[in-house]
């Protein structure tokens, strides 16, 4: 087993494990971007951005070039953009599956949901507030013999 390879992959994904770094990579997909534009887009402190850019730079996933007094960052290769697109597809699929499961769970619920307004029960639902069968329809109040 190639432990070193798995260790390197784990480190790579750990490096991606920060929301600011992911957002920076997404912004850089549009092309080389000056730090001031990244700051404006992200709305975080310059020191925080500097730390996150340093992590990305050390990993080799982004490059930095100086143009006069401006530092411009860019993706080191197109594979990063492909990885971000793949992650988006995977997350979309997972969220869609979770949404379908949630809808199924809601449909299987015996009582009204907490977020259902009162009186919004489906037709034929004649349970009492505590979930027991009730006789709330006219003519149903007589005991069965």
Please characterize this protein's 3D structure:
With 145 residues, the protein is mainly alpha-helical. Helix content is 52%, strand content 10%. The protein has helices at 3-15, 19-28, 35-42, 46-59, 78-108, and strands at 33-34, 62-67, 70-75. Strands 1-3-2 form a three-stranded antiparallel beta sheet. It starts with a helix and ends in a 37-residue tail after the last helix.
Q: Summed up, what is this model?
A:
With 145 residues, the chain is mainly alpha-helical. A three-stranded antiparallel beta sheet has the order 1-3-2.
List keywords for this structure.
5 helices; disordered C terminus; 10% strand; mainly alpha; 145 residues; 52% helix; three-stranded antiparallel beta sheet
